[in-house]
Amino acid sequence: MRYTTTNVAILATCLMGLCLSSQSSHAEPLTVARIFADPDLAGPRLREPKFSPDGRYVTYLQGKADNKDQLDLWAFDTRNGAARVLVDSRKLVGDDEKLSAEEEARRERQRTASLRGIVEYEFSSDGKRLLIPLGGDLYLYDLDSKSEPVTRLTHSASYETDAKLSPAGRYVSFIRDQNLFVIDLHTKQEQAITTDGAGLVQYGVAEFVAQEEMGRDTGYWWSPDDSHIAFTRIDDTPVQEVERFEINADGARMFRQRYPAAGTANTKVELQVVTLANSNIKDIELGLGDGYLPRVKWFPDSKSLAVQRQTRDQKKLELLKIDIASGAARVLLTETNPHWVELSDDFKFLQSKPQFIWSSRRSGYKHLYLYDLDGKLLHPLTAGEWMVVGDGSENGLVGVDEAAGRVYFLGSKDSPLERHLYWSSLSKDTSSNVTRVSREAGWHDAKLLPGGRGYLDLHSSPNQPPSASLRKPDGSLQHWLLKNPLDATHPYHPYVSNQVAEEFGAVSASDGQQLYYRLMKPANLVAGKRYPAIIDVYGGPHFQNVRKDWMGGARAAQGLFRQVLAQNGFVVLTLDNRGSGFRGNAFESAIVGRTGKVEVEDQLRGVEYLKSLPFVAGDRIGIMGWSYGGYMSLMGLTTTKAFRAGVAGAPVTDWGLYDTHYTERYLGTPQNNAEGYRSSAVLPYADSLHGALLLVHGMADDNVLFTHSTRLMQTLQSLNKPFDVMTYPGGKHGLVRMPQQGRHYYEMVLRFFERELNAPES
């Protein structure tokens, strides 16, 4: 096997550590407890940054110094470079914020369940007001007010969710008690658009698989001129009912959850349009059949809807133009793929021309294309063996400067391990000649200033915590919003001198494709000594673990835990196998028809690489992962003998128990691929469990149901196989992000590996 190792020892981090350690009285070891304590080890960070419509303000959410998970709303004035708190969440709701069950579920889908305070907000179109949902009610903030800038809009006992300002600024809309409401901001009158939402019927809400798997967390859309709202009516009656117990510390509750498991019926989704002037509601015929409604968007003239329709097998996606007056629909374009068609939000109408931008993977890699409003392809905007792709998602389109004739996007052109901002010409096919804008190596996300006058650059790298700056169109610096240097004032400063530098490289898969990794050696490596190693794996679709960012980006706790492991004498390897995200169709579709095979084969390439290193004890290798990573840990422990110990958190054990849209994308249905489901499950291999297993699951998980683990427990018990278990009362799928549960989990994992991997094999 040929190893194309590119050892990128981060010299800057080492030099910085030497410099800073001379300033501090002592270096502190990083601990799990400190990862979850305040303040945030990444330093201050900007969440949900947005430009005001006039470009004067950059607003963002930021955690408090004494509680990094309680967010306030801040504003940075681009004219004078000053930042200030706009809304202090404590002053409005205090610390004891209670969420409704619907809002808790929504935040779990959005991966924001650990956050409190202000978690979302929206500008009015004139830039003078901000809509802020907080504590179940809605507030308006007037940016021009000198005395009482905050107005409370709702005072109901029920919880308002998914609140929006209408595009023209006359209304505020929201969901309450499964119905759609609007408030006229001129008259202050509240109106119920729908009234019969109850039981299994909801209006304006995204169904479970739309939220969890399709990246759609809303079920209603305003027309640009405020005259209409398109909204969904969803009915869960066809969906199978699953009895699910949520076991909490003080007792258990039984839920009859409508869960669309693979091969079973989905939620019935319909689309309707209301005319605000007369409250008339009209049904829109979609012809969905048993397919999906991934996206809805209005045409700029507010007369037609652009609706994306996906078949149940996900091999075809159509863009429809539907006239709301007549209901007539026609297909503008069709995307097909023998495996599956990916969804994204890279769809934008131009303002100066009757054209739109659309993204497609038809070339094998996701790129941007320009169409006219009749669905005629004008020309590609990007091309090549790389991806237009954003910060951890399929979405890469940043914005358009129509005056300059440029489309801005994020992509992996320079390296699959980095994200950069680029632009390409709108007016002609220069797709093979794109221009890079971002300058610093590493990981960038970007927001385009209104009018294309510049952009907000969100950047991190393995030796630079997240920073934020305003940049000119050529990438040069205009203002720092957050420089975030690792100086003596930074929360991470006491740990810098002990930081283990990451090394990046690649090994080859069996088909020759490159498998990138990030490697940490044990701190204070002693020549001639062999150390235990741990593979930290996810391995599933739509995620990239190996990236040149700060501590794993959104999964910073996991990245920091890898530091803890290395500082406690472990070698840590993270490798992105085939099937994982953002590498193109050939790389990602390797799992079609069967999961858990090529992914494990690729992780074994990582094992072989570890064994080739002179400081690794090849007989003391462990594996750990959560969700798909938990599944990978189990497949590694049951289908190979490569691992001495493994941690499987919230694992899928039988894909027949998981949801339709995700599972059927890769495996089809159990009815048409029974052998694929059987061979992709963990349970058939349970008798071959090799090594110590720590099985972990939240007892209130409504995504990967607790049943996945209880079935495995029973199977292993019947086979008289020893294993360890930790369950978390009240724990959801994202429990590792929760401060108390997350700390307990990672400390337990550290103890487990210290026990199982540190002692030589007897």
Structure description:
- The chain is α+β, with helices and mostly antiparallel strands and 762 residues long.
- 16% of the residues lie in helices and 34% in strands.
- It has 13 helices and 45 strands.
- The protein has a nine-stranded mixed β-sheet with strand order 1-38-39-41-40-42-43-44-45, with helices on both faces. Strands 2, 3, 4, 5 and 6 form a five-stranded mixed β-sheet that branches. Strands 15, 16, 17, 20 and 21 form a five-stranded antiparallel β-sheet that branches.
- The two termini are 31 Å apart.
- 49% of the residues are buried.
Compute the number of strand runs: 45
Per the principal axes of the C-alpha atoms, what is the gross shape?
globular
Strand order of the largest sheet: 1-38-39-41-40-42-43-44-45
Estimate the mean pLDDT confidence.
Answer: 92
Radius of gyration: 26 Å
- Measured between the Cα atoms of the first and last residue, the distance is 31 Å
Major beta sheet, specifics? 9 strands, mixed
Low-confidence stretches: 1-25
Structural class: alpha+beta
Tell me the strand percentage band.
Answer: 25-35%
The amount of helix comes to 10-25%
Total number of helices: 13
Question: What's this model, at a glance?
Answer:
This protein has 762 residues and is α+β, with helices and mostly antiparallel strands. Strand 16 and strand 17 form a beta hairpin. The longest helix is centred in the last third of the chain and has 19 residues, at 739-757.
Question: Keywords for this structure?
Answer:
762 residues; alpha+beta; nine-stranded mixed sheet; five-stranded mixed sheet; 45 strands
